[in-house]
Amino acid sequence: MIRTQIQLTEEQARKLRRRARQEGLSLSEMIRRCVDRGLQEGTTDRSELYGRAAALVGAFPDREGRNDLASRHDDYLEEAFR
Q1: Which of 27-36 are b and which e, b meaning 16 or more Cβ less than 10 Å from the residue's Cβ?
Q2: Where do the domains of the chain lie?
Q3: Residue 19 class from Cβ within 10 Å (0-12 exposed, 13-18 middle, 19+ buried)?
Q4: What is the pLDDT of residues 29-48, one digit of tens each?
Q5: What is the pLDDT of residue 15?
Q6: Which of 45, 36, 40, 72 shows the shortest CA–CA distance to 28?
Q7: Beta carbons of 58 and 67 less than 8 angstroms apart
Q8: How far is the C-alpha of 48 from the C-alpha of 42, rounded, in Å?
Q9: Minimal CA–CA distance to 29: which of 16, 42, 38?
Q10: CB-CB neighbours of 16 under 10 Å
Q11: 69 contacts: CB under 8 Å, gap ≥ 6
């Protein structure tokens, strides 16, 4: 193990201590698990993220009720400057 020092907000420290106590873990082990979890989330397949983002294109209408703003933004911008 490598010894390190970090600074936490009061709220972060309180939540970590509470969770560690609930799970019967030391504060150090709780922090290691949180770090591991955060590092795993960072390895998410980018194509999955892009797919989820693409699925939202056109899902929500704008104020005029149009759902094609993402694909026709240049057309609407041109109209606005006429």
Answers
A1: eeebbeeeee
A2: 10-80
A3: middle
A4: 999 999 998 888 766 677 88
A5: 96
A6: 36
A7: yes
A8: 13
A9: 16
A10: 16
A11: 58, 62, 76
Q: How far, in Å, CA of 27 to CA of 18, rounded?
A: 9
pLDDT of residue 68: 80
SS (H, E, C) 5-32: CCCCCHHHHHHHHHHHHHHCCCHHHHHH
Q: Over 70: is that where the pLDDT of 18 sits?
A: yes
Contact 69, 80 (CB under 8 A): no
If we measure between CA atoms, which residue out of 1, 60, 68, 47 comes closest to residue 28?
Answer: 1
Q: Which of 22, 42, 69 is CA-nearest to residue 79?
A: 69
Average pLDDT, the chain: 87
Backbone angles phi, psi at 45, to 5 degrees: -60, 120
